[in-house]
Amino acid sequence: xxxxxxxxxxxxxxxxxFTRPLLDDVSSIVGCFSTSLDLGLSTKTICINxxxxxxxxxxxxxxxxxxxxxxxxxxYEQESGxxxxxxxxxxxxxxxxxxxxxxxxxxxxINGIHMHRIVGIDPWSDSLTKIKAARVGMGDRVLDxxxxxxxxxIASVKNSAREVVTFEIDESxxxxxxxxxxxxxxxxxxxxLLHGDVTTLIHELPDSYFTRIIHDPPRFTxxxxxxxxxxxxxxxxxxxxxxxxxxxxxxEPRLHGPSIIKGIAERLRTAGFRVLGFDKSALGFIAVKY
Length: 290
What we know:
alpha+beta; Rossmann fold; 2 domains; four-stranded antiparallel sheet; 8 helices; about 25% helix; elongated
């Protein structure tokens, strides 16, 4: 694939992560105890001493750790010693790592819209439903069209995919992902992360290369319309092998309108896919190239 200049070297940031519920619990404790400082991935022994949180011989002032809002996340960056909220404001919008619980995988929120399902399900479990719908397994080559926090790509590798190629167009999303402990797996050698527009760069991908495709685009808007276009679906059809499975996330049909959902299915069929049906658990279409 002639996409080397778009390869993004993912650099996970080491740190300790704090949410307001976690700090509220900590503030009432004296002495040492175990808790999670990476949003539920692991536990560490920490101590409280004279208004400081002591972890790995590092003293961190508790009063500087409190997020400004209930669902925001604060990071203590180990290399630099900086303390800051995982938010970013740019001309393209406002981004934040959104906590849904002190020991649960977070989502990313862009301009008030979160990029995972969080009602009755957590973001990691949401991603697992998608790789299950796409039937990702041993030896698969997976195209993950929209990286986000990388949960789908990481879960695919954990489910024994041999290779994942994934695209992310937004630098701010990558900045958040590098500072999200649940995104560390994007540094895997089996994941090729490309920084660019998949609707353009897909033309550089070889024919019949992938055995599985997970297409999980942002919701349909004027700016994201190319990700739902017939031209793009034809490219997805071109790069997947015969008998390869595509999962196309759409979200809840009643929230997006039947015309949008129906139009997606019709364009997939026009592109050449056989649409097997709508997966109510993963909220998207399963299609196959015959």
